[in-house]
Specification:
The complex is a heterotrimer of chains A (198), B (104) and C (576). In chain A, 78% of the residues lie in helices and 0% in strands. Chain A is an all-alpha fold and 198 residues long. Chain A has one domain: Cytochrome c oxidase, subunit III, four-helix bundle (Four Helix Bundle (Hemerythrin (Met), subunit A), Up-down Bundle). In chain A, helix 1 packs parallel to helix 7, helix 3 runs antiparallel to helix 4 and helix 5 runs antiparallel to helix 7. The longest helix of chain A has 31 residues. Chain A is elongated, with a radius of gyration of 19 Å. The relative contact order of chain A is 0.16. The mean pLDDT of chain A is 96. Chain B is mainly α. Chain B has one domain. Chain B is 76% helix and 0% strand. Chain B contains three helices and no strands. In chain B, helix 1 runs antiparallel to helix 2. Chain B is flat and about 70 Å long. Chain C is mainly alpha-helical. Chain C has a single domain, classed as Cytochrome c oxidase-like, subunit I domain (Cytochrome C Oxidase, Chain A). Chain C contains 16 helices and four strands. In chain C, a hairpin with a 2-residue loop joins strand 1 and strand 2. Chain C starts with 11 loop residues before the first helix and ends in a 54-residue tail after the last strand. Classes of the chains: A mainly alpha (198), B mainly alpha (104), C mainly alpha (576). The interface between A and B is large, with 45 and 51 residues.
Chain lengths: 198, 104, 576
């Protein structure tokens, strides 16, 4: 009676293992977090009426599109990392997981470059509510990317030792990390569309 | 899902196809935004395409389409509250107390 | 403090400080939250001096606070506001919820479902320490220049946007508390769904577990918008944004040097989106505890258990769509106001169903007036008064007169103080024997209960009178300079006296708690002759909880079953 059940095996009536349920619940709360931020966007934009600038006025759509491609690619490589483990190919897992992390860091660098360009041209969050919500939304999103990089790096590095002793449990961890990562990509799809394209 | 080599190859091909679709749709959305159509129309088109892209990520990449009923129930609940949180404050703006002239 | 050589023996630090055992974590939450409750109460005792004897020096104690808070022992308005904001914040976020959910939930839920621990023990530990850090930040905020947050626990902008540093600390403190809460709620939900023992179907769950499950969903989905709002307020305060600062704002006649374009109501919507479900977080665990104790001390099954379960699920759902009844006076039109008035009226129905079920349980019961039962019985009329007084507030037209008056303070304190807190006391007296193997002293229990019960009513009943007379809340001088208030002012002294007496009545409880741990009457594993699974463990429960394989054979409240050999049939025993 010491072991916690259903860490790897699924429970019959729910069809889930614990961490899978946990991550979906966490993602539900994240939907509400970004919901709060998007709600602010809607309210502020409607309140500003015609004064609200088009995204392209302040933001470089080409760079934003590039970053979107980067993140979408990382979603695919993250999924491939999990698929590699399902096919018992640890080497491929390491490669795909590594690419995922690299793409994430590229995204962050590009975002950092965008921010620094803004500051260079004296565009600060305090200038108007468009920039305020832009910096806040992308900032919170970037924090989520950083969190994902930390977790993915741990799982790529020291955490990957678990593959030797408990391969199924480790595969589940990658699946769960992957679900988080796809969510971060999903949020960006809306973020990019709303802030850059509207 | 990934039971053997064959089905594994099929799955991976599916993911790559979805990747291509996502990239294409993104480019299409960028193009639509550059057309500078009437703003309401732009919002509808761009958001619809974004929603479709998001559903691809959710249903296929996150395997939501084959997920357990319990997870669906959590998400349905979340979406209901998300919609309330997003739109009720707007209702407050569009239904102010009569006689007032400014937007709070 | 070094690791011993036995593989299952942990160091002192791992066993008691950085434990991943839900019982230790539950006790950590319990001790910490009780201390915060005491602190929050002390804050109120200070405030009550100012309200009873406005601008008179507080003898002896007044000098401790120094010249920048209480010069000459007389409270400054700024300090009063800090005390007010922090009393609310500490009681709600550092006291009641961590006790109700963090302590009781963590300790009892795994036991009641037959699990060896929570689903994610390490996450559980992270939850506690996040809460601890948040609490420390809140306490430290009193000592920064300008003092603690002073814009109410509701932190409305624009005031909160331009307030002193303490407000920034409040926001960071909240970030830690919200994180703690989110991690905890994921843990609770997964635990309850996944770790129920064989035979324990959802409709056989103790109502306490149902209450914690719904509470966890409220915390999971309602807190994030407040997190978002807190980030935006931090941006306003630290990065100069104008999320909540409207255009054309003047501070002391001077225009603010910001971009404007923000919305004050944006904060209110996002805040109350959390804060309304938060009040159900305050009451639901209490209802769960009361259910357990009523069943056990009436030796009867709970009236309409299934109906109560549907009611609590419906209540949880509705709690997300009533929030703007806190905003009736913000200029909302009739359509949106009617919507929120309607949902608010509807949400009173499940509460009434649950309260009615409680009263039904008493009917024909063989009532044992144990100390937990006294507190649980007192809960019923107190919650009744609190709930009924909420109705005029939920009706937009009546709320025009009552909003932001002492009527509101009376209403919600009736629910939280002689409501929830009494239920939490009941829970402590009830489960103390399981955690320690000893019962708390009955005489001290009576000395705690009776004066507390009387004082609670003496404190909060007059507030309805003051509120109806038009006395606003958050008035530093208690209404002294307010023309409307003159007829109701004398109540301030009366209420303050009752508060200080209430404080004295807690001394028997504190003594009881500390002394009974060492000297209380020793009892066995199931001293109350209860039916639920937590009583099947050894006392105190060891790491891993259960020493044998368990199965559940029946519902949670099979008391006085006809034909059974005893007046209770435990869930875990095959033969009734």
């Amino acid at each position: 009676m010491q072991e916690i059940p259903y860490t790897v095996a699924v429970r019959q009536d729910t069809g889930l293992y614990n961490a899978k349920m946990g991550i979906w619940l966490f993602l539900a709360s994240e939907v509400m977090l970004f919901g709060g931020l998007f709600s602010a966007y809607v309210l502020l934009r409607v309140g500003a009426g015609e004064h609200w600038p088009l995204g392209a006025t302040y933001l470089n759509v080409a760079i934003g599109t590039f970053n979107t491609f980067v993140l979408m690619s990382s979603s695919i490589t993250m999924l491939m990392a999990w698929a590699s483990l399902k096919m018992k190919n640890f080497g491929h897992f390491k490669m795909y997981q590594g690419i995922t992390i690299a793409l994430a860091l590229l995204f962050l660098s590009v975002k950092g470059y965008e921010y620094s360009m803004k500051f260079k041209h004296h565009h600060f969050p305090s200038d108007n509510t468009f920039l305020a919500i832009y910096f806040t939304l992308t900032g919170i999103h970037a924090l989520h990317i950083i969190g994902g990089v930390v977790v993915n790096s741990y799982l790529w590095g020291p955490g990957s030792k678990m593959w030797q002793a408990e391969p199924e449990r480790f595969t589940n961890r990658i699946e769960v990390a992957g679900l988080y990562w796809h969510f971060v990509d999903l949020v960006w799809i809306f973020l990019f569309s709303v802030m850059y394209l509207l | 899902m990934i039971a053997d080599q064959n089905s594994a190859q099929k799955e991976i091909r599916k993911y790559l196809l979805i990747f291509v679709v996502l990239l294409s749709l993104t480019l299409m959305n960028v193009f639509v935004s550059r057309l500078h159509l009437n703003i309401s129309l732009t919002i509808i088109i761009v958001l619809s395409v974004a929603a479709f892209e998001a559903s691809l990520v959710a249903c296929q990449l996150m395997h939501l389409i084959s997920e357990e009923k319990l997870i669906y129930s959590f998400l349905v609940l979340t979406v209901i509250f998300f919609v309330f949180a997003l739109f009720i404050p707007l209702w407050g703006i569009f239904n102010p107390i009569t006689g007032s002239t400014h937007v709070p | 403090m070094s690791e011993s050589h036995h593989e299952h023996e942990s160091s002192f630090w791992k066993k008691y400080i950085f434990s991943v055992d839900h019982k230790i974590i539950g006790l950590q939450y319990g001790i910490t939250s009780l201390i915060f409750l005491l602190f929050g109460f002390t804050i109120m005792m200070l405030m009550r001096w100012q309200l009873a004897y406005p601008e008179q020096p507080l003898p002896v104690i007044g000098k401790i606070f120094g010249e920048n808070r209480m010069p000459g022992g007389i409270m400054l308005p700024e300090f009063y506001n800090q005390l007010g904001a922090m009393h609310g914040t500490i009681m709600v976020f550092l006291g009641v919820v961590p006790l109700a959910v963090g302590a009781f939930g963590n300790y009892i839920v795994p036991l009641q479902i037959g699990a060896p621990d929570m689903a994610f023990p390490k996450l559980n530990m992270a939850s506690y320490w996040s809460f601890f850090v948040g609490g420390v930040i809140m306490l430290v905020s009193f000592f920064v220049p300008g003092g603690a947050a002073s814009s109410g626990w509701t932190s409305y902008p624009p005031l909160s946007d331009i307030a002193t540093v303490g407000q920034t600390m409040w926001l960071f403190g909240m970030a830690f508390l919200i994180t703690s809460s989110l991690l905890g709620s994921v843990n609770f939900i997964v635990t309850i769904f996944q770790l129920r023992v064989k035979g324990l179907t959802f409709m056989r769950l103790p109502f306490f577990v149902w209450a914690q499950l719904v509470t966890s969903f409220l915390l999971l989905l309602a807190f994030p918008p407040l997190e978002a709002a807190s980030v935006m307020q931090l941006m306003d305060r630290l990065a100069g944004t104008s999320f909540f600062l409207p255009s054309g704002l003047l501070i002391s006649g001077q225009p603010l040097a910001n971009s404007g374009g923000g919305s004050v109501l944006l904060w209110q919507h996002l805040f109350w989106f959390l804060a309304h479900p938060e009040v159900y977080v305050l009451i639901l665990p209490a209802m769960g505890i009361v259910t357990e104790i009523l069943a056990n001390n009436t030796r009867k099954p709970i009236g309409a258990y299934k109906l109560m379960v549907y009611a609590i699920i419906f209540l949880g759902f509705m709690s997300f769509i009533v929030w703007a009844h806190h905003m009736f006076l913000t200029g909302m039109g009739t359509a949106i106001s009617s919507f929120f008035q309607a949902t608010t009226m509807i949400i009173s129905i499940p509460s009434v169903v649950i309260l009615a079920a409680f009263f039904l349980t008493l009917w024909g019961g063989a009532i044992r007036f144990t100390i937990p039962m006294l507190f649980a019985l007192a809960f019923l009329p107190m919650f009744g008064i609190g709930g009924l007084t909420g109705l005029p507030l939920g009706l937009a037209a009546a709320d025009i007169h009552l909003h932001d008056t002492y009527y509101v303070i009376g209403h919600f304190h009736y629910i939280v103080a002689p409501g929830t807190i009494f239920a939490l006391f009941a829970g402590i007296y009830y489960w103390f024997p399981k955690a320690t193997g000893r019962k708390m002293n009955t005489l001290l229990g009576h000395l705690h209960f009776w004066p507390s019960f009387v004082c609670m009513n003496l404190i909060f009943m007059p507030m309805f009178i003051q509120g109806l007379a038009g006395v606003s809340r958050r008035l530093y001088d208690g209404g002294l300079t307010y023309a409307h208030a003159q007829g109701a002012l004398h109540w301030n002294v009366f209420i303050s006296m009752a508060v200080w007496t209430l404080a004295l009545s807690q001394i028997p409880f504190i003594i009881n708690l500390l002394v009974s741990m060492k000297c209380g009457e020793k009892v066995g594993d199931n001293p109350w002759e209860a039916t639920t699974l937590e009583w099947a463990t050894p006392t105190p429960p060891p790491h891993g909880n259960f020493t044998r394989e368990l199965s559940v054979y029946r519902g949670p409240y099979e008391y006085s079953v006809p034909g059974a050999s005893r007046d209770f049939s435990p869930q875990y025993e095959e033969k009734p």
